[in-house]
Design a protein that fits this description.
88 residues, 0% strand
């Protein structure tokens, strides 16, 4: 089944709170949610857009999406484990 594409703003706001905006949208479109995928998307974007805009304005080029934050945290944990296993 084909679904409409997310707008740039929808994708950006979703990327602020979910790791994979396209996967979230695909799930919303196929899971049979009672309010419907468009209403779910609208609610999610409405809820998180103000925080997304504030964070983008506050952090500028230092802003990271949820996926980027989680990747950085995973790398940090991995580095810490490496230090504990193989102290210098």
């Amino acid at each position: 089944m084909s679904h409409r594409s997310l707008t740039d703003l929808e994708r950006a706001v979703l990327a602020h709170v979910v790791v994979d905006p396209d996967a979230w949208w695909e799930h919303a479109c196929t899971c049979g949610i009672s309010i419907g995928p468009e209403a779910a998307l609208s609610a999610k974007v409405s809820r998180w857009a103000p925080e997304y805009v504030n964070e983008r304005n506050r952090l500028g080029s230092e802003y990271k999406t949820r996926a980027e934050v989680e990747e950085a945290q995973a790398q940090l944990r991995s580095s810490r484990l490496q230090i504990e296993v193989d102290p210098v």
